[in-house]
Design goal:
Number of helices: 6
Distance between the termini: 11 Å
Structural class: alpha/beta
Order of helices and strands: EHEHEHEHHEH
Shape: globular
Helix content: 40-55%
Strand content: 15-25%
Largest sheet: 5 strands, parallel
C-alpha cells in the first residue's frame, strides 16, 4: 500500500506522522512529498521510503497513492502560507486515494468539532485509521 505524506513549512507534522507509522510497523511504502526542501528532508529523516519536493511530485504521487495524509490545508490552494498551489490542491482533491487529513485550524480554515483534540491525539487517530486500511500481512 502506497501512503503519500504531504507537508510544508518545517515538515514537523509529516515527520511525526511518519515516525508514528513506522513505530506501528504498518506494511506500507511511504512517499514523503514536501512543498519545500526543509519539509521533505524532515520527513525523509523520519523514515520515509522516498521523497520529493514541489508541485509536480504532488501531482504525480497523488495519481497512484492508496492513501494521502497531511494537514487539511493540502486541499486548499494558497494554504500553508502560500506553499500549496492550486494544482497541488486539485491533485489531492481529485485523487481516488483515501485521505487522512489532520484538521489544523490555521489560514482562516477552521474545522468545527476538533478544538478539543490535541494534535498528538489526532495523529494517534490517523495511525489507527491507517492501520484499519492496511491489508493483512
Amino acid at each position: 500500500m502506497k501512503v503519500v505524506v504531504i507537508d510544508g513549512q518545517s515538515g514537523r507534522m509529516g515527520q511525526v506522522l511518519i515516525e508514528r507509522i513506522r513505530a506501528a510497523a504498518l506494511p506500507c511504502e511511504i512517499a514523503a512529498v514536501g512543498t519545500n526542501a526543509i519539509a521533505t528532508s524532515a520527513m525523509l529523516k523520519a523514515g520515509a521510503d522516498a521523497g520529493a519536493t514541489g508541485e509536480n511530485p504532488v501531482v504525480v504521487n497523488c495519481r497512484d497513492a492508496d492513501v494521502i495524509a497531511g494537514p487539511i490545508g493540502i486541499l486548499a490552494a494558497d494554504s500553508l502560507l502560500g506553499e500549496v498551489t492550486p494544482a497541488m490542491a486539485l491533485a489531492v482533491g481529485q485523487s481516488p486515494a483515501r485521505k487522512l487529513l489532520l484538521p489544523v485550524n490555521h489560514c482562516n480554515n477552521v474545522v468545527v468539532g476538533t478544538q478539543s483534540m490535541t494534535l498528538s491525539k489526532l495523529m494517534d487517530e490517523a495511525v489507527e485509521l491507517l492501520r484499519a486500511m492496511c491489508p493483512e500481512t
